Amino acid sequence: MTNSVMVLGGYGNFGKRIADGLRTRGVPVIIAGRDPKRAEACFDLNTGLGEALAQYRPAVVVHTAGPYQGTDYHVAKTCIAAGVHYVDLSDARDFVVGFGALDAEARAANVTAISGASTVPCLSSAVIDHVRDRFATLDEVDCGICPGQGAERGLATTAAILSYVGQPLKPFAGHPKAYGWQGLRRHRFPHLGPRLMGDCDIPDLDLLPAHYGLKSIRFGAGLELGFIHLGLWALSWTVRWRLLPFPLPKLATPLLKAADLFDPLGSDDGGMFMVLSGTGHDGQPKQIDWHIIAKDGDGPQIPSVPAILLAERLAKGEPLAPGARSSLGQISLDDYLAALKPFNIVTA
């Protein structure tokens, strides 16, 4: 076994940033994928992963080749069977929430397997852990993400979002009925101004209430240009009313290309917010608003950090408990923000 990290989809939107981040930290990287011109290890993920692991013998696999919605745990199980640590960037609610089903298998193999190593639930839980002691009771969390129009967008991420646009979302704390990209609302970001938000389906909707005892949670995502956001909102109604004769993710490529045409009208500045509400130690209502703002197109660095830090620790032999779990609580806010210092990213 080497101390290298194999990045599946290592030339994609997040994969290339993770690979660069690991190299900067002195970790050897193997770029894997289907494109022989861009991948050092070229193979089909569904059929060739086991052979590739035997050939290259990485210490860790970072799986960035989404979307993860509707997929099984084949990649994780193959890594566990080979004795290779595993990290993925999944934002698929059922995928991440159910990942613990592999826990016994991973423990038996002395393998650490972590799912959802991205902004949610890793950064969201890090923020809560950082401020939790300021509350006597923490009751509600409202959070959301809005990238800049000019920020690089990946096809897998686009397809993942489209998979639940207009679809009924499984009930979550405080919201027994919600639909993807509906629940239209506006949030004002410091340095960025107001942006529209719509309901999204993410692992936090299940993980955070269960872990922190929340009575209500809400998560939204938005697009910088209001007319594009409203266009997708309108499209969500055609899905909800069953007017489309085909699944919406089939439009991922043309919709992504269409959105790219409007890049000159927007910026490459985006952000994330978290509003935490509850009761202070004085018995009075308490609210904390937290924001992280990324400029100059550095937004995609934020979801890349958890995989970089976790893969580095595993590759360098730092002790991380074996087993399969989500990224919730795996990285402190201080460590997270320290990794972002080289970029034009600030908190507010």
UniProtKB/TrEMBL annotation:
Database matches in Pfam families: Sacchrp_dh_NADP
Domain of life, per lineage: Bacteria
Sequence ranges assigned to domain Saccharopine dehydrogenase NADP binding in this UniProt record: 5-114
Gene3D superfamilies referenced in this protein's UniProt entry, alphabetically: NAD(P)-binding Rossmann-like Domain
PANTHER family registered for this protein in UniProt: CARBOXYNORSPERMIDINE SYNTHASE
Name of the molecule in the record: Saccharopine dehydrogenase NADP-binding domain-containing protein
